[in-house]
Design a protein that fits this description.
alpha/beta; binds S-adenosyl-L-homocysteine; 6 helices; 28% helix; 199 residues; 7-stranded mixed sheet
């Protein structure tokens, strides 16, 4: 899928395929296991469902996205639901300004798979620059098991392992599914969930 600007994805009548109006069930499960805790950063947060999920369970949650429209929507949801999550417009490829060790947990739902090969290295270094040692990144991306070419680029397990090879422990990579909006001809897509711990 070619997206001219990220704001354009959020400016139509209908929401984009990934913006399902609730958190992905995989992250609801992780949250139920108490894993989305402490100071949580939702990178490429879109309209904020995962930061809001973490905030609803007591985390100190922040969401960052390039799209002002998505951040406006996330802030409106936080106000409607009376949840204390913070949302900021920003580029997650340069997070170091937020300070070393500023977060305990990073959530990536559908961000990694938008990056080029070159951006992947910058992205992983950027989240490492703000994640405390021992902190976790939970990342869900489209997988090579997903047939067809609708949606973002497919990612193989080996590519995830390579991206997180330096300064991280790969705790697990498991096959999961994204839910997507029904009007895009499918209701789910094959995904990988990676759990990475910063050394
Ligand atoms: N996590 C959200 C959105 C996934 S779509 C959800 O699960 O619904 C990918 C999101 O990443 C989009 O909202 C897009 O605006 C954002 N994005 C893409 N590149 C980015 C970057 N460099 N910095 C911050 N956000 C980015």
């Amino acid at each position: 899928m070619t997206i001219p600007t990220w704001d354009s994805a959020y400016s139509g009548e209908a929401p984009p395929p990934w913006d399902i109006g609730r958190p992905q069930p995989v992250f609801v499960r992780l949250c139920g296991q108490g894993l989305l805790s402490g100071r949580v950063l939702d990178v490429g947060c879109g309209t904020g469902e995962h930061a809001l999920l973490a905030a609803s369970q007591g985390a100190d949650a922040t969401g960052i996205d390039l799209s002002q429209l998505a951040i406006d929507r996330a802030r409106a949801k936080a106000a409607e639901r009376d949840l204390p999550a913070r949302f900021e417009v920003g580029d997650v490829l340069s997070l170091d300004r937020l300070g070393s060790g500023a977060f305990d947990t990073v959530i990536d739902s559908g961000l990694f798979h938008v990056f080029s090969d070159e951006e992947r290295g910058r992205y992983v270094a950027s989240i490492a620059s703000v994640l405390a040692p021992g902190g976790h990144c939970y990342l869900m991306c489209f997988s090579n098991m997903q047939p067809g070419d609708f949606g973002p680029r497919r990612v193989r397990q080996e590519e995830l392992r390579a991206a997180f090879s330096d300064g991280w422990a790969v705790e697990s990579i498991t096959a999961e599914q994204f839910e997507v909006n029904r009007d895009f001809g499918m209701t789910s897509a094959q995904a990988w969930l990676g759990t990475f711990r910063r050394n």
